[in-house]
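[scheduler] slot 2 assigned
[scheduler] job type: sequence-to-structure, two independent chains
[scheduler] chain ordering preserved from manifest
[runner] begin chain α
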Amino acid sequence: MLLFCGLDLYDAVVHAISAVGTGGFSSYNDSIVHFKSLSVEVVLGCAMFFAGGNFSLYFKVKRNGPGVLLKDDEFRCYLFMYLTLVTLVTVSLAAYGFSPFRGLREAFFQVASFVSTTGYVSADFDQWPTFPKLCLMLLYFTGACAGSTSGGIKISRFIVLARGVKEGVVKALHPQESRPILFNGHKIENSVFALVLSFFFTYIGIFVLVSIAVVSTGVDIQTAVTAVLACLSSIGPGFGPVVGATGNFAPLPSAAKLMLAFTMLLGRLEMYTLLILFHRKFWNGRSRW
């Protein structure tokens, strides 16, 4: 499809791999802005959105048809969140003075880029007003679906947490009533809910601690916080002139780069895989092998 949009074979392959793998690297310094092509943005926007879906769910689509997508709790939430944010960003940009078409074009692509944690840039979103930038920042935390190539906490965990909170409120109002937390019709055991809660607070805790550490190297708060979020969620670009849409991480102090490199590994490996290396029992167990 990118070949039909006018890209040569090399650029088409590079950007197809980068979009489906939600890697976000372009063969050009100015990312997707370089092409100035609506068709390229539509193809890559759709590719990023579907790359953020659960790949095992797509296998079910092959067997049972596309109807299974809307029966899945996570994909429905993913689709609803994407369409809602595209609408909000489009309206906000139109109110700011953008034409409705330009607002929709930039919102369609950048929301897909952030929600899938790809990090492609089709416009300088640092020039947007505050509200649409806040919408993008929320996606640093959510990421896309479990079973995808995206980063972030994952939508499925937020669904479980939200339903856990709902059941907690019901339990407070009616102590004798006991209802299970359901996800796609399956009961979520208390042990699983505890693990989801643990992951969430570990994610937030690492974000806060690394942000403080990066600020201590002399980096300003906006750059430090958004850089940590961008690395932890595997998105790439942050906000501001240094690490924003038109910048990069090169000007940051070496100490900050080392911490952010470690943060990228934590985010990509979903933390626990890397954190166990710092536990004494892990090495004691290996010594017995």
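[runner] end chain α
[runner] begin chain β
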Amino acid sequence: MIPRTLFDSDLEGFRDTCRKFLEKEAVPFHAQWEKDGQVSRELWTKAGEMGFLCPTAPEAYGGLGCDFRYSTVVMEEIARAGCSGIGWPLHSDIIMPYILNWGTEEQKQNYIPKLISAEMIGAIAMTEPGTGSDLQNIKTTAIKNGDHYVLNGSKTFITNGQMADVVIVVAKTDPSKGAAGISLFLIEDGMEGFSKGSNLDKVGMKAQDTSELFFDNVKVPAENLMGGKEGTGFMALMQELPQERLLVALTAIAACEAAIEWTKDYIKERKAFGKSISKFQNTRFKMAEIITETNALRVYTDRCLELHLDKKLTIPTAAGLKQITTDLQCKVMDECVQLHGGYGYMTEYPIARAWADSRVQKIYAGTNEIMKEIVARAELG
């Protein structure tokens, strides 16, 4: 593996602390959380106490004021541990930045400290049953009525949906304006008319609470309009998506590296026809291929991380990165399952769960087909 140059001793110390925390507080319980359909609230609280939530939040709001490399460490260690149910990255690196970058000062003061401590768990509700990646055609509306808005609609596939205390909801405040009529709202659990559907039964990521959300004439105070201004929602979505797609890519490569390590251990121990299967040419060639491809995309992903730290990661570059890394993730998982043989299909083996978990990576944060279209539009017009 080519040495990484982005992480100094302080960051590696943070990584070691995070890894030990997950090994003690998450790994032994994750199988039960998969049966429960969500991780424990206690884990969130402990993570807040350890500084693992929202590490990039400014000190002015009670945060550590770290750069995005600290968030990277957390999400890489979650992937390495195979703890796909832990929804911290979305909470810390999607929800918190939306509020920080697009919220009013009052909204920042109110919500960011609570996200840091896990007093509140965050979610974002973009996708609707009939729209998928087509955000411009969402049907959820928020119509102004005096000092409040009336919110109606439904959302689906919402990560952290069951546990969320605050949800950023994408809605149309002026349906006649298309994308220019989209706004964001901060909706709190317990608001009258806001309800959560059942925890969705997914192929993978069984410990991640993913839900439908319903809004039936929810009376939303005007001060819960993100940034206090209508029509800025689509712009916010477009500007925040590169970090979200980088997050997905970083998780994908860390998951590939973990799967390769599990498979190395397995093929050295497993014997067939009187010798370790690591000695068979097919095994060696398959491993060489996925190791080399993962190493190559690790370097590319780290370069994109550098660009992001310098605020130079463009929308097309992030889209292409998300597409190529998640395609590789699915390939690596499939090859590693095959090398495990029948045991690779047994959920007691981490590779089986990682294989099922990986498939959604090509779908959320924008499908890989949409990612290709973004790149093509930028390069070809």
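[runner] end chain β
[qc] chain β: The longest strand covers residues 148-159.
[scheduler] slot 2 released
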